[in-house]
Design brief:
By secondary structure, the chain is α/β, with parallel strands linked by helices. The relative contact order is 0.17. A hairpin with a 2-residue loop joins strand 1 and strand 2 (about 15-25). The protein has nine helices and ten strands.
Length: about 240
């Protein structure tokens, strides 16, 4: 289990995380939602130890460190690969670094996305780079896979097909934490939704619980964030001087 306890992080005058506690069990697919600046990226980077913060993060009771960091992987649109190397070279390098590197999955996902094996990553489009970032995270052999807006630059059909493929390849003990703004698209893919607002968790619900209550994921998120349905009309009235 990945356990996050009382994480807090402040950047200058902005409180990015405020006493965040969260548990992720094996085999869960969790959507992490929130407006821009809610703290989603900071939370993921804090889990990985890339950002210093107050609080603790443990994996099966042990702090995250060199001896267990390989159990976590991270896909980010910031890109963490070597731009001058080809996917083939990346695969060879990762196989040396990670004992549980999944070469079969790597080849299958490269074929699925129709990505060239021998061209340098710098020649890829933004969408292709993001696809490759996701592939590396999924093939590392990690039990906990963190994805921060991994589908930027990808078309609707690629995204929809990928959700289906991902559901088919994930092992029972693999956990995914997915940060995205594509709420409706992932509603049928995730099993749990965690909502962040101004650095705090304001919602944590399973999709089964939502179904039992008769609510959709979108309606639950709007309700939790007190979304005003007249927001657009009020703005237009002000802009056109009709208020």
């Amino acid at each position: 289990m990945l356990k996050i306890e009382h994480l807090s992080k402040k950047y200058a005058d902005k409180q990015a995380l405020a006493d965040v506690s969260l548990e992720l069990g094996k085999g869960e697919i969790v959507g992490l939602f929130g407006e821009n600046g809610a703290g989603k990226t900071t939370l993921m980077k804090s889990i990985l130890g890339l950002v210093r913060c107050k609080g603790t993060v443990t994996l099966d009771g042990k702090p995250i460190g060199p001896e267990n960091i390989s159990h976590l992987s991270y896909a980010t649109s910031e890109h963490s690969f070597f731009p001058n190397l080809s996917p083939k070279s990346h695969g060879e390098f990762y196989a040396m670094q990670f004992p549980n590197w999944n070469a079969v999955r790597f080849g299958a996902l490269m074929e699925f996305f129709e990505l060239p094996m021998t061209k340098p990553l710098r020649s890829f489009s933004t969408g292709q780079k993001n696809q490759f970032e996701v592939i590396l995270a999924l093939c590392q052999g990690a039990e906990y896979i963190l994805m921060d807006e991994p589908f930027a630059g990808n078309d609707l059909f690629n995204r929809e097909d990928f959700y289906k493929v991902l559901l088919g390849i994930l092992e029972p003990d693999e956990t995914v934490l997915l940060s995205t703004h594509l709420i409706e698209e992932v509603a049928g893919f995730i099993g749990r939704a965690v909502l962040l607002h101004q650095g705090q968790i304001v919602g944590d619900v399973t999709l089964d619980e939502l179904e039992e209550s008769g609510k959709s994921l979108v309606s639950y998120i709007k309700e939790t964030y007190n979304y005003r349905s007249d927001r657009v009309s009020r703005a237009l009235d002000k802009l056109t001087g009709e208020e």
